[in-house]
Amino acid sequence: MTSQTTHRWYSRPVLFVSDIQRALHFYVDLLGFEKQWHEGDGAGGVCQVTRSDCEIILCEHDTRKDKARLFVELTADGLTDFRREVAERSIPSKMTWWGYDSLQIEDPDGNELLFPLPG
Question: How many CB atoms lie within 10 A of CB 77?
Fold first, then answer.
């Protein structure tokens, strides 16, 4: 008989950006994330932003132009509050379909954040 151990998997997506300061402005000042750490005492090209349980590593990289899609699921009340923030801060967004009706926000580098609406 084999014993089964359950391990916790923890992940943080890495989004490549062309300008770390511009990305920080977008994620911190517009989307309400907090900067958790920043390489090189704030002078480096890699940092982490966090909002609630959502953690994202931002990485300024000259040759990586990849774009990512991050699916962020909020409670119904959390989504209502977030949509109000988006409207108040005039954050560009649009409705899209990705398996669900979703609110889509793109960062300045084209990375997509999708927030599904309750079914």
Answer: 8
